[in-house]
Specification:
mainly alpha; single chain; 272 residues; 0% strand; globular; 12 helices; 77% helix
């Protein structure tokens, strides 16, 4: 239940200073929640699982590139290496979102930990924002590490092009969009395991099926406003003819903003 302590809290003045005080307090509380989330992530088994999967993916890519290297010329090797790494970017993000974002809200209801962690008055907006930021920041940090390894490997063995920078920018937008959707799903679920499965299947299969049905019904064109179609730009950025980067980025950002707003609206109306 959301706590409103404006009547009794000291230092809350009328007029503009009241708004400023609430704004500062909301930000401070959000960072407290985010720090708690980081602590929970880093001391949990999910972090080890995610690290293991990321290392396994990187190792698999490097082995595949090494195996195909004798059969490729210089131009093909550059494109092959970039394509190998970039093709897994969206998958790495999906794994992070499934492990961290999809369980972020529902775990508080399932385990009743919110009543223990947040014993002092705290607004639901701060809880939701803190959890959203924690999932976004964590996913972004590990995506940066993955990109750094990819960039170093490409730079050393075959050179690196601007395509990877475009892909990185689109990945950042996808992180926001996917986490927004994940927290929306998490707000509606009763079990963490169910939320994780729904989020994973939604991005892996269901969004693609929905887009295909829309495109089949329309008869022509693509459902570019769907998040799965926009996220395809992460890989499509390798193509010389790709020029939809701004549109795809905007679509993913809109998905993230709309889903986050809807998730918060539902979260406010759900009691612990």
């Amino acid at each position: 239940m959301e706590t409103n302590s404006s009547a009794s809290s000291p230092g809350r003045m009328s007029g503009g200073r009241k708004t400023l005080s609430w704004g500062k307090d909301d930000v401070r509380q959000s960072f407290v929640v985010m720090k708690n989330e980081f602590r929970k992530f880093f001391y949990g088994k999910k972090m080890l699982l995610f690290l293991g999967l990321t290392v396994a993916v990187l190792a698999l890519i490097i082995v595949m590139i090494a195996a195909l290297d004798p059969f490729s010329d210089e131009d093909d090797k550059k494109r092959l290496t970039e394509a190998m790494f970039i093709s897994f970017y969206a998958f790495i993000i999906l794994i992070a979102v499934t492990l961290f974002g999809a369980t972020s809200i529902v775990s508080e209801y399932e385990e009743r930990t919110a009543l223990i962690l947040f014993t002092k008055p705290i607004r639901k907006s701060s809880i939701y924002m803190g959890k959203l930021l924690a999932s976004i920041v964590l996913t972004f940090v590990f995506t940066c590490v993955y990109y750094a390894v990819s960039a170093v490997f490409c730079a050393v063995f075959c050179g690196i092009g601007t395509e990877m920078l475009v892909s990185f920018g689109l990945s950042a937008c996808y992180i926001f969009g996917a986490n927004g959707v994940a927290l929306l799903i998490s707000t509606m679920m009763k079990k963490s395991s169910t939320s994780s499965i729904v989020v994973f299947m939604l991005f892996l299969i269901l969004f693609t099926v929905i887009s295909s049905v829309i495109e089949a019904g329309a008869g022509s064109g693509t459902a570019f406003w769907m998040i799965d179609q926009a996220s395809a730009g992460i890989s499509n950025s390798l193509s010389d003819s790709y020029d939809d980067g701004i549109r795809d980025a905007a679509v993913m950002l809109i998905w993230g903003a709309a889903a986050s707003a809807a998730g918060y609206w539902l979260f406010k109306r759900r009691d612990f």
